[in-house]
Amino acid sequence: MSGNQLAADAKRGFRRSITRILGPRAVFFWGFIEEPAMVAAAFPSSKGLVKAMLEPVDWDNCKLFVEYGPGVGTFCPHILERLPDDGELLVIDTNPLFIDYLKETIEDPRFTAVLGSAEDVEKIVRAHGFERADFVLSGMPISTMPPAVTENILKATYRVLREGGAFLTYQYRDAAYRLTTRHFERTIEEKTYRNIPPCILAWGYKEPRADG
User: Fold this and answer.
1) Of 70, 81, 128, 181, whose CB has the highest number of CB atoms within 10 Å?
2) What is the C-alpha separation between 29 and 133, in angstroms, rounded?
3) Phi and psi angles of residue 35, each rounded to the nearest 5 degrees, phi first
4) Cβ–Cβ contacts within 10 Å for residue 1, how many?
5) Contact 169, 145 (CB under 8 A)
6) 3-class SS at 200?
7) CB half-sphere exposure, 185, CA atoms < 13 A
8) How far apart are CA 88 and CA 84, in angstroms?
9) Model-level pTM?
10) pLDDT tens digits for 69-118?
11) In which domain, by residue range, is 91 found?
12) What is the tens place of the pLDDT at every residue in 115-142?
């Protein structure tokens, strides 16, 4: 094993020990310090925001729910509560700190955490035995990401969603909603004050194609 690998393993072991002691809020804040451009806020979303974001989901027809940028899993238990017994929750994050934390703290067999980029969502979904996702949730800070990356993610998300599925976002600015309207046939916007700061929620629906 190389010196670099040993150093990386030692760093990861140290972070695991600290995060177990300090808890999820400290993990989230640490992740924000490490990658501020990829974490939308310094603290997790409120329960009010989570409820408002998930209310429109058609849970009876959800077999695969995908989340980009789950952080410390603020949404995960609420999604798993609503998900059918034969459904799956697949989360994707670029930060190994968050992925390690989620793997250690969520034991539900319907849950899978993947270290990777949302740009590769199609490949990741196929690798886990699915052709399409029913719903995709993203809390990533679209306004601070490189425009080319944002476009790639939105295009890949549209392709991976089944017809009738939806892309869900929550942001402090309306950038995500404006981008969603460019890629999805039907969009809904709502502002919630049940979070600090208030958030703009957006749902972009991939409409079924007209037959013939």
Assistant:
1) 70
2) 30
3) -135, 70
4) 7
5) no
6) strand
7) 11
8) 8
9) 0.81
10) 998 899 999 999 999 999 999 999 998 888 988 998 899 999 999 999 99
11) 3-205
12) 999 999 999 999 999 999 999 999 888 7
Antiparallel, parallel or unpaired: β 161-171 and 133-138: parallel
DSSP reduced 3-state for 106: coil
The closest alpha carbon to 27, from 67, 68, 70, belongs to 70
CATH of the domain at 132: 3.40.50.150
DSSP 57: -
Region of 73 (left: φ > 0; alpha: ψ -120 to 50; beta: rest) is left
The b-or-e profile of 106-144 (16+ CB within 10 A means b, else e) is beeebbbbbeebbbebbebbeeeebebbbbbbbbbbbee
Number of domains in the chain: 1
Q: Which residues of 27-56 are buried (b: 16+ CB within 10 A; e: fewer)?
A: bbbbbbeeeeebbbbeebbeeebbebbbee
Two tokens, residue 108:
């539900």
Q: How many CB atoms lie within 10 A of CB 186?
A: 12
N- to C-terminal Cα separation, the chain = 59
Domain annotation covers residue 183: yes
Peptide bond into 36 cis (omega under 30): no
Q: Residue type at 196?
A: I
